[in-house]
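=== RUN LOG ===
request id: a7f3
mode: sequence -> structure
chains: 1
length: 221
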Amino acid sequence: MKHFFLSILIALMCGGGVYAQADGDILSGPYIRVTLSEPGTLGDILPLETLRNADYVAISGPMNYTDCLIFRNVYPLVPSDEYKGPSVIDLSGAKFENDCLPEAAFECVGQGLYNRPSEIVLPENLKTIGKWAFAICNAKVINLPPSLEYIEDHAFYQSRIAGTITIPDKVKQISADAFQNTKHLFYVTLPKGIRVIGDRAFFGSGLQTINLPSNLRKIGG
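=== RESULT ===
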């Protein structure tokens, strides 16, 4: 009981809201932290309204496509005085089957209104980004983990990823159309060990220069 009242006192002293906590999770307020025990249960734990009013969401534990799909409904499609959706989605502690971000996981998330989400942090042990995973996604910053090995076709198609991106050292293949029409992407650093860059991988992007490593075996048109 003393711990409960102490938590409330600290929250009030810091100027924030009172967070509902369970087993270390923070289930309400501007900062959300939740650990899933089973994939597909995010919607059962966190109401859509709670996610819409958060500024930072951190999710750990097993996740699947169903959990990701929720974020398509988190951001407003028209100007809203009620909510804007979280600025940061932190999945660094999440785990996907076969260490692969599912196909179309964050497709059409955000769509530009209010420039949210601004950043998505991917799981630390992720190996593959699936097809269309971030197509037409609004996030300008997507943190690629060192464990990443494959970027499948259309993974970032027409996304708003911006500025500079560094492809991790373990990536051997960037598939066809992976970064097509990423008009705000200006610089890409490729790893020395990359072997294949698929057809139209950077077609229509904002790339100004790109250095191709000597070990590259195939590059598409």
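=== NOTES ===
Residues 2-13 form the longest helix (12 residues).
The mean pLDDT is 88.
=== END ===
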